[in-house]
Amino acid sequence: MRYKSIDFSKFSSIKIGPRVDVALIEQGDKFLENHFLIGGANNLLVSPNPPPLMMLGKSYDFLEFDGDDLIVGCATKTGRLLSFAKKHNLANFEFISKLPGTIGGMVAMNAGVKSYEVFNIIKEVEINGKWIKKEDIEYGYRFAKLNGIATKVRFEVKKGYSEELRLELVKLRENQPKEPSAGSFFKNPPGDYAGRLIEAVGLKGKRVGNMAFSSKHANFLINLGGGRYEEAIELSNLAKELVLREFNVLLKEEVKVI
Ligand SMILES: Cc1cc2nc3c(=O)[nH]c(=O)nc-3n(C[C@H](O)[C@H](O)[C@H](O)COP(=O)(O)OP(=O)(O)OC[C@H]3O[C@@H](n4cnc5c(N)ncnc54)[C@H](O)[C@@H]3O)c2cc1C
């Protein structure tokens, strides 16, 4: 087994976490028990003592046509898939523009923008080495129950890449802050917005140490430079406590805290 030493204070999008040896899983390797699988760490908050970690290696970073379908390895970065879609004039991948991560992470989070989400265009996912049809996977708003490791995804492809649509969808996300974050921190509760609730309890812009709820978008927990895990957790707990007390709504993390 090969390992890669990863400094999460540099690698993760929120720039928090220790340096750890992460096991690299290549095609043909067995998955490791009791290891947490990471993708690009764009939706993770890594504690000073995370569980043992693994990630998919280079052999899972590929794109290939299979008849009318496109098969993409789960270590492939979203940016690479978008460039491929543009080059080959493929429709329906425009929403992944500037959505950071790997294809595996996207599938596990059913990542997307408004109603454009990755499960809209998926046909099948290879999980623990077996192809599973989309219909047999439970998925919804920002989650998918994969019950294992996604290694490859089969996408339905149609011609017709639209630069206009890409720009329109990127524009929808212009309210996201530029400072390091892990994306939206909490899931939007049914019929409401986590950002609205955090703002309503007075936490928009609230700072603890070097972490803060962004004053641009309250549901983004941002790192102002040298922010720490404990500070992030303090803010998260505070938001949960106040929102529960004032609105009787239990905020649930979208970010995976490990
Ligand atoms: C600035 C910013 C903006 C963002 N905006 C959006 C947005 O608009 N919409 C949106 O949906 N998301 C957004 N995100 C969140 C993030 O881009 C997505 O969740 C992305 O899909 C995470 O991919 P990742 O590879 O980094 O996964 P990671 O963060 O590494 O992992 C996320 C989860 O996926 C699981 N996972 C990873 N790979 C696999 C695999 N191969 N098989 C099974 N499980 C796996 C992990 O175990 C973990 O539970 C944003 C993030 C940032 C930093």
Gist?
The chain is built from 6 helices and 18 strands.
Write a concise keyword list for the protein shown above.
binds flavin-adenine dinucleotide; four-stranded mixed beta sheet; 258 residues; five-stranded antiparallel beta sheet; single chain; 18 strands; globular; alpha+beta
Give a structural overview.
- There is one protein chain.
- This protein is an alpha+beta fold and 258 residues long.
- Helix content is 22%, strand content 26%.
- The protein has six helices and 18 strands.
- It has helices at residues 8-11, 78-87, 103-109, 163-172, 194-200, 229-247, and strands at 2-7, 19-25, 36-38, 44-45, 53-56, 63-66, 69-73, 112-113, 116-117, 122-127, 130-133, 138-140, 143-145, 150-156, 207-208, 211-213, 221-223, 256-257.
- The strands form six sheets. It has a five-stranded antiparallel beta sheet with strand order 6-7-14-10-11, with helices on one face. It has a four-stranded mixed beta sheet with strand order 1-2-5-3. The protein has a three-stranded antiparallel beta sheet with strand order 15-16-17.
- Strand 10 (122-127) and strand 11 (130-133) form a beta hairpin.
- The longest helix is centred in the last third of the chain and has 19 residues, at 229-247.
- The protein starts with a strand and ends with a strand.
- The mean pLDDT is 96.
- Flavin-adenine dinucleotide (FAD) binds next to strand 3, helix 3 and strand 8.
